[in-house]
Amino acid sequence: MAALGMATLFADQATANSSSQDQSKTPLAPKATHFPAKVKRVIHLFMNGGPSHVDTFDYKPELNKRHGQKLPNPNLRTERPTGAAFGSPYKFKQYGESGIHVSDIFKHTAEHVDDMAIINSMHANVPNHEPSLMLMNCGAARFLVRPSLGSWVTYGLGTENQNLPGFIALCPDGYPITETQNWQSAFLPGIYQGTHINTRHNSIEKLIENIRNSKISLNEQRSQLDALNELNQMHLEASGADPALEARIQSFELAFRMQQDAAEAFDVSREPKHVLERYGSGVNARQILIARRLVERGVRFVQVWQGQGQPWDHHDDIEDGHRRLAGQVDKAIAALLTDLKQSGLLDETLVIWGGEFGRTPVVELPKKGSNQGKINGRDHNHWGFTTWMAGGGIKGGTVHGSTDEFGFQAIEDKVHVHDLHATILHLLGFDHTKLTYRHAGRDHRLTDVHGNVVSGILA
Questions:
Q1: Phi first, then psi: what are they for 115, rounded to 5°?
Q2: For the chain, is the Cβ count within 10 Å smaller at the N or the C terminus?
Q3: What is the pLDDT of residues 21-30, one digit of tens each?
Q4: What confidence tens digit (pLDDT) does each residue in 191-236 have?
Q5: CATH node for 3-219+247-457
Q6: For residues 346 and 331, what is the distance between their CA atoms, to the nearest angstrom?
Q7: How far is CA 312 from each of CA 35, 88, 128, rounded to the nearest angstrom?
């Protein structure tokens, strides 16, 4: 039970077996929105490390023509020295009725471009992983304690399944650079923190430690928890309000309830053979399938991480590296969108793809400690990059904004990360300026004092 007391397992106390709990006080109960929502849940496919937009969804034929040449405009300042134009090693092809160009490393995902709004004019603040991860996931580029996007969503909406966490981060093989800060609840109550699941494991017992009690029955556990809850409530009343204690009490209850639902939700072996084949093999494909199973069961926000041990951070060998990582998820992303569309869930689910920034259209030059001096990779690029979204409320077959002709900088219909967050909340039924939480004397929000809804991608 202690292992199940992870931060994001702090879900509500309500349970069918405990009628004494007041449902009106359940923090994760579904909540009303500011206006009718277009979507009810989110799957965030996070490509950790910064995938190159000019090698995936931002087609730049002029860049290929200039390969090996010095560009007419000066290179923008990035983290490392850069040189001549570096054309994409991949072939682009037009897909769908919209005729959008997509790289061949995402040829399966590209079959769904008519359901996607591709934002080619994203930009962030700095070309460093740590602040850019914090900006994309928590809305603050500085190292401040700020709640993550998933925490804000569950704070505003609650969740639809009280037997599973409302916010789950599927992240194999260790944490990203900024670790658990990427799914923290910060000053929001602990109940809204993301639950980290290491999807490197297959068995439910390793995915979620101590998920089953082999020594006593569910009825006996229920009796023990009722007794423990009574003592904890007495202590809480005597000591006064204590968010940490309240969260711990709630974690015991969720841990008990998860024994029934979690095992079934995470067990992909229950899927038909043809479905497993469509998603493909490997850890990343399996976790995308798990994400679909979780949203089908009412989990509000699922973040799927790719690229911890081998991130998209290819300062060298970008041709091999990007092809390898794309190959790990391409079929699975296409299968996810197909399944959601066939079941009707895509109409009420928002699927987001992207990383913390993009990569330069020019080659990265050798620098000791940064690369191997192969001169076949790209540096970080926060000036312009790509994110795409699909699902309810999204205008499919749309390309919004653009970078310059070489792909260095967003120049048309620019979209900052704050604007992206404002748009996500809008689709979920919230005015981002009004979804606030009082802390340290002021009303905080995900977008701080920034952000505009990107109306151009809305249906």
A1: -105, 0
A2: C
A3: 343 357 889 9
A4: 899 999 999 888 777 777 766 777 777 788 778 887 888 888 888 8
A5: 3.40.720.10
A6: 17
A7: 38, 15, 14
Distance CA 169, CA 9 (A): 12
Residue from 52, 149, 139 nearest 381 by CA: 52
* Domain edges within the chain: 3-219+247-457
d(CA 211, CA 205): 6
Rounded CA-CA distance 116/100 in Å is 10
N residues, the chain: 459
**Structure-block tokens of residue 357:** 């920034």
Tens of pLDDT, residue by residue over 110-168, are 999 999 999 999 999 999 999 999 999 999 998 778 999 999 999 999 999 988 999 99
Contact 389, 116 (CB under 8 A): yes
Alpha carbon distance 13, 195 (integer Å): 17
Q: List, for residues 357-401, the tens digit of each pLDDT value.
A: 999 999 999 999 899 999 999 999 999 999 999 999 999 999 999
Cα radius of gyration rounded to whole Å, the chain: 22
- Greatest alpha-carbon pair distance for the chain in Å reads 74
Could you please report the per-residue DSSP string of 211-263? -S-SSS-HHHHHHHHHHHHHHHHHHHHHH---HHHHHHHHHHHHHHHHHHHHH
Q: How far is the C-alpha of 255 from the C-alpha of 100, rounded, in Å? A: 46
Per DSSP bridges, beta strands 41-47 and 349-354 are: parallel
Structure tokens at 235: 């202590």
Residue 14 backbone dihedrals phi, psi, to 5 degrees:
-65, 140
Residue range 275-331, pLDDT digits in tens: 999 999 999 999 999 999 999 999 999 999 998 788 999 999 999 999 999 999 999
360-372 core/surface letters (b: 16 or more CB in 10 A; e: else): bbbbbeeeeebbe
Task: Report residue 403 as tokens.
Answer: 């970078």
SS3 3: helix
| Span of 81-90, 202-211, 251-260 with lowest mean pLDDT | 251-260
In contact, 41 and 301? CB cutoff 8 Å:
yes
Residue 263: its pLDDT value, please? Answer: 80
Cα–Cα dist 423/412, whole Å:
18
The answer to pTM > 0.85 is: yes
Rounded to an integer, what distance in angstroms lies between the CA atom of residue 411 and that of residue 401?
8
Band (8; pLDDT cuts 50, 70, 90) = very low
Tokens of 190: 């602990």
